[in-house]
Specification:
It is built from 11 helices and 50 strands. By secondary structure, the chain is mainly beta. The chain has one domain: TonB-dependent receptor, beta-barrel domain (Maltoporin, Chain A), CATH 2.40.170. It has a 22-stranded antiparallel barrel. A hairpin with a 3-residue loop joins β11 and β12. The two termini are 48 Å apart.
Length: 835
């Protein structure tokens, strides 16, 4: 050990002038490798009682087990107990409990096109404005179950913990971890332990006549001494809280031809309208089965399959502005007025998503290191039906006569325009890692690895107008409609199935990379880590357009965008007092570029500059303090400056094309903290966190798009999808109320400041933002032996929060106005038992 301790002398006056105060001293020590004399004279000591209080938090963010405070970066960890006490069921509900993390939350049906955002590193428009089926750019945050990347929708069930890694994670987690990584660590099978649990819940959501419920179970079965099997599953039903009116009755599916109220008059007959209460329901099932094998001490293997199925109808969309009265498409029909929990839709809007992840983890201890392999294959497929009937009816306010291309001339009184979206992703990945065995006598630690990924994604967008062509035929139309035309030039252009528009898109992405990190323990309590990753990538995109209304066909055409990149990381940390650490970090993140398969000529051509988009990178500068004390206090505080180069922006072009382009520069600066501490009463404690994130464009950019307008962004604009200030706090109280009976109480509050949804405007869609919000949750539970019964309340004050405001369009009396709202208060009674 002596050769590892580098003795230095320094002038105390110089040190005081260089680093004033304890924070400055700690950072100075971390950066310069100077041992703290006070700490050297007072080696850490723990008593048995102190050790019991500490309750060490262990994470695997750096691919090896480490205490939370020894990892030199900003990490938030949520245990299974925290997930349960705060009502976290999926990634969307997790977001509110992690300051500095956000997401466009428009309901589970949009789960294919939204993703977590960390530190505001997102420049893309809100999904609801331009892409209801999937995202086109790579997500800025990598999401993992265990060591396996995943997308799609799933419930957080039988989870050991969640690790949120803030800031670029390019070296260990690769492309797609531009802003950070979200790691969901499931429980693995346990050898020699037969165990299980069951849990059931019933609930009452406000503004709903339905009852929510879920049931979950877990079973761990040891099979001999070397094998164990674990299976868990959760089924949940969430009733809707929004009523809908205006659904036209059809003869079959929602995209079938509407039924005539008067079959004898196929030209002028009204439709038959109906409504539904508690429309926006949701059903979910998530199950996981895993087999763990450990034939010898040095080797283990785990094979796991995670399956998730989501179905539902509608979304959290309401129209409080429609005053009631005549239906604009058929004035003979009267609609009721809108309301805070009332919506209007000409068609039903069912949706579904299936996500499956299969993974195999192998680990072998070779003595000086552990060799690990993770093989995974996941698929996610989604389908959703939206409707654009009212939007198209309002289009004549902008382009007189345009609506008749789709709705007939005169307008079909039974006109509907459902939009169907499908998406799919199939991803295989393979990673090999060699992680050195660490110990107090080791001068160096290292991680070496190689990674391969092959991903195929696809999506379709289909718009139809069932019944309108048949009605035009009944009129006797013989010529195609054009603006200013009259009978008999009133035919609408459609294809098979009354389809008037189809867009298809397929993408292939391959990534091969090599990575490594080397940690040098240059003094007893100090270390420096250097990391690197080399990427070699290929990307192809192919799109096709078919618009019958204007006789436009753009066949599939393919573009490619290969890329290679090196990213780096350097961090230094120093334990300046027992279990108190200071660190400084520079790290880089990287995200693949891509291609937009826009047509090179014709009505829908775009600027050649927009046919491809480049990779974007982030340089993260971060410093912080972390630690814990013997009384149970645990803390992290850091400041960061993330410089974003060529940020990718996804959105709709003014002519309706969907694509991705590069802005010039953006920046995210701020501070974060996490704190867990006991309070003044035995059993009383608080867990709190907060973040301030100032994420903005720092340079103007502009592209010439087409005759409808340009795409522009301006320095100083706040990036969409993130809030400047966010915080979450949970007060916990645990107390024995009688022999054998324990009480647990939790009160949780989350806060988010205002959040912009867009930074640029398209035709009829201005840049928008939502105001801040504060939501409280609470739970009270009593445990006796293996039984637990509790009451859980989410949105305690029953606050109605607008998650996305609509734009008032008075041309059809605001019938096409919509706003997206949060879920109202829900009170659940839960009962669980374990064995």
């Amino acid at each position: 050990m002596k050769n590892r301790v580098r003795q230095r002398t320094f002038n105390a006056k110089t040190l005081r002038s260089t680093a004033r105060g304890p924070i400055g001293m700690a950072v100075f020590f971390a950066l310069h490798g100077i041992p703290d004399p006070a700490y050297a004279q007072q080696p850490p000591q723990q008593t048995e009682s102190t050790s019991a209080i500490l309750q060490e938090v262990v994470v695997t963010a750096n691919r090896r087990q480490q205490s939370l405070e020894t990892v030199p970066s900003s990490i938030s960890v949520l245990s299974a107990a925290q997930l349960s006490a705060t009502g976290i069921t999926d990634i969307a509900s997790l977001i509110g409990q992690v300051p500095g993390m956000s997401m466009f939350d428009f309901g589970a049906r949009d789960s294919g096109s939204v993703f977590p955002i960390i530190r505001g590193l997102n420049a893309s428009d809100s999904a609801i404005a331009n892409r209801d089926f999937r995202s086109f750019e790579q997500a800025p945050v990598g999401t993992y179950i265990g060591n396996s990347p995943i997308n799609g929708y799933f419930q957080l069930d039988d989870v050991e913990r969640v690790e949120v890694l803030r800031g670029p994670q390019g070296t260990l987690y690769g492309a797609g971890s531009l802003g950070g990584a979200l790691r969901i660590i499931p429980n693995s099978p346990e050898l020699g332990n037969f165990a299980g649990n069951v849990e059931a819940s019933v609930g009452s959501p406000a503004h709903s006549s339905g009852t929510s419920y879920f049931g979950s179970a877990m079973l761990n079965i040891p099979i001999g001494d070397t094998l164990a099997f674990r299976a868990s599953g959760k089924y949940a039903y969430e009733p809707g809280f929004i009523n809908v009116y205006g659904n036209l009755v059809t003869s079959g599916s929602p995209i079938s031809i509407p039924v005539l109220a008067n079959p004898a008059d196929p030209v002028n007959s009204p439709g038959i309208f109906t409504g539904k209460d508690d429309w926006n329901y949701q059903k979910t099932f998530t199950g996981r089965a895993s087999l763990y094998w450990k034939p010898v001490d040095k080797f283990n293997a785990e094979l796991a399959v995670t399956y998730a199925r989501l179905t539902g109808d509608g979304g959290p969309v309401v129209n409080p502005l429609f005053p009631g009265g005549s239906y604009p498409i058929d004035p003979r029909i009267t609609f009721p007025r809108g309301g805070d929990y009332q919506d209007f839709s000409a068609t039903d809007q069912p949706y579904s998503r299936t996500t499956v992840l299969t993974s195999l983890d192998l680990s072998y201890d070779v003595g000086f290191a552990t060799l690990s392999s993770t093989s995974s294959y996941f698929t996610t497929t989604g389908a959703a039906l939206f409707e654009a009937t009212y939007d198209l009816a309002a289009a004549n306010a902008f382009f007189p006569g345009y609506t008749q291309y789709y709705a007939g001339n005169p307008v079909n009184p039974r006109f509907v325009e459902p939009e169907g979206f499908t998406d799919s992703a199939h991803t295989f990945s393979q990673e090999l890692r060699l992680v050195s065995t660490t110990g107090p006598d080791k001068l160096f630690d290292y991680v070496l690895g190689v990674f391969y990924e092959n991903q195929e994604t696809g999506g379709t967008w289909t718009v139809s107008e069932p019944g309108t062509p048949e009605r035009a035929a009944a009129q006797g139309c013989t010529g195609s409609y054009y603006i200013g035309a009259s009978f008999p030039n009133c035919l609408v252009g459609v294809g098979p199935g009354d389809v008037n528009f189809f867009q298809g898109d397929t993408q292939n992405f391959k990534n091969t990379s090599e990575f490594g990190e080397l940690t040098w323990h240059f003094i007893r309590h100090g270390q420096i880590t250097v990391g690197a990753r080399h990427f070699q990538e290929s990307f192809t995109d192919s799109q096709s357009y078919l618009l019958y209304a204007f006789a436009t066909l753009i066949p599939p055409h393919e573009r490619s965008a290969p890329a290679s990149k090196n990213v780096w990381k350097i961090d230094a940390s120093y334990e300046y007092a027992p279990s108190q650490f200071a660190y400084a970090l520079w790290s880089q993140g990287f995200r693949r570029g891509g291609a937009n398969a826009f047509p090179p000529a014709g009505e829908f051509k775009e600027n050649p500059e927009l046919l491809t988009y480049g990779p974007d990178t982030v340089d993260n500068y971060e410093t912080g303090l972390k630690g814990h004390f013997s009384n149970g206090v645990r803390y992290t505080v850091d400041v960061f400056d993330d410089e974003w180069h060529n940020p990718q922006v996804s959105g709709s072009f003014p002519d309706g094309n969907i694509g991705v382009w590069n802005a010039k520069k953006a920046r995210s600066r701020g501070a974060e903290f996490d704190l867990t501490t006991p309070l003044f009463l035995p059993g009383l404690s608080i867990t709190a966190g907060g973040a301030y994130v100032d994420a903005t464009f720092t340079e103007n950019y502009s592209y010439t798009a087409d005759v409808f307008g340009n795409i522009s962004g301006f320095a100083g604009q706040q990036l969409p999808g993130s809030t400047k200030a966010s915080a979450a706090a949970t007060i916990n109280y645990a107390h024995d109320i009688a022999p054998g009976y324990a009480l647990a109480v939790a009160l949780n509050e989350t806060y988010r400041s205002a959040m912009p949804l867009t930074t640029f405007a398209t035709i009829g869609t201005p840049a928008t933002e939502v105001s801040g919000m504060s939501i409280a949750n609470a739970s009270v539970a009593v445990r006796h032996a293996s039984w637990r019964m509790g009451v859980y309340v989410t949105n305690l004050a029953n606050k109605r929060v607008i998650l996305s405001p609509g734009e008032s369009i008075p041309f059809i009396n605001n019938l096409n106005y919509y706003e997206i709202v949060n879920r109202p208060r829900e009170i659940d009674l839960r009962l669980s038992s374990s064995f």
